[in-house]
């Protein structure tokens, strides 16, 4: 049995989700101690973790212990790798829900998606033979939980950033629709979030591109061709927020070339439900095998800006950076905003922050935003062949990393040069501890893949992955 200390690296849910997902696929018996041990809230499994791991236990016939909300140690011993009968039919989808309505649907999906891609479909009377490795099948999933939850990717981030990236870079196509939003902000209304997914299962994850290096080895500077906004806000501030976002984007050199387009604008119906997502993307070049690159940044407001203004004090504006996007979104920053009758100061502050974060991410270059980077690690590890999802290092990006994790501080040109597909083992990474460029979440995810998948090899400061070629 493999034992992992849940305090290693980022020491939170990312480690748990990645380890459980790969243990289910590989059949590796797993024990995790000190679950989420680095979290100030006290750690332990959250409802979304418990729900997803229990589902994996059911479909793998796993013997388990300690899989419940609040548990700080759990064991997982899978026996087989089967999906539920009939899950390839829209009439009998897999249904996954947590014990609480606002438990993150996206974080549950992160735990089970690898298994849904590669778990075996059982033989049935209607389908007596398993699908061959050259056939593509689809799995239907009804996902119930929070769609706009703090510290987790939102549905909009999945829809506009993660899922398109998985399709462009790995050939994983996910049809999706949101049936009902569910927030963990505002008064409880008994509404359960609902996302419908059809996950098309390729025989293998075949990487479509491994780097964005030009012929001269110089990284291509991101040329942004579109910036789109999604805004859900109370009616009292909606128009002012739209104006503030448009104005701020027009002042930003990295984002001003294309006009800001509003993909979705809706009244949220509650003073505590305010959400903004900005997504910037490049055009891509299919002829030269250069995919579209996407950067997403969003904000989820947890204070009631209407009520706070009525009381004469400003709300705290919370920044969700990134995922989890939003895997994209862990750390939050808060600032008191003076209350004003028209909420103009609140809207200006939100616009400045979300545009500023997005512009900084784009300016750093690479293949996408820092939260997207850690979410694709597991797919790199499972892919057949070599992939690279590198990012330009920002000056302060590594502050969250622990002191014992070394940063090679590579210049962009040197990093890109190492993305060449060579077999020089001198660039091999030490995979015995979290490693590589980017966030501590990305470094930890790489380490977990190396612990659970024997065929995975990382090199060049975590920028190049030779995947296990899972089928």
Distance between the termini: 23 Å
Strands of the largest sheet, in order across it?
10-9-11-12-13
Query: In terms of structural class, how would the helical and strand content be classed?
Result: alpha+beta
Helix content: 25-40%
Q: Which series of helices and strands comes N to C?
A: EHEHEEEHEHEEEHEEEHEHHEHHEE
- Low confidence ranges: 124-128, 213-218, 312-341, 395-426
Radius of gyration: 22 Å
Give a short account of the largest sheet: 5 strands, mixed
CATH architecture of the domain at 224-364: 2-Layer Sandwich
The CATH H-level homologous superfamily of the domain at 224-364: RNA 3'-terminal phosphate cyclase, insert domain
Q: What general outline do the C-alpha atoms trace?
A: globular
Query: CATH fold name of the domain at 224-364, please?
Result: Dihydrodipicolinate Reductase, domain 2
Q: What is the C-level CATH assignment of the domain at 224-364? A: Alpha Beta
Strand content: 15-25%
Q: Can you describe this structure in just a few lines?
A:
This protein is an alpha+beta fold. The protein has helices at residues 13-26, 47-60, 105-118, 155-170, 235-250, 305-310, 344-364, 370-382, 412-417, 440-452; strands spanning 2-5, 30-33, 63-65, 74-77, 94-97, 137-144, 173-180, 194-201, 224-233, 260-267, 274-282, 294-301, 319-320, 386-387, 457-459, 464-466.
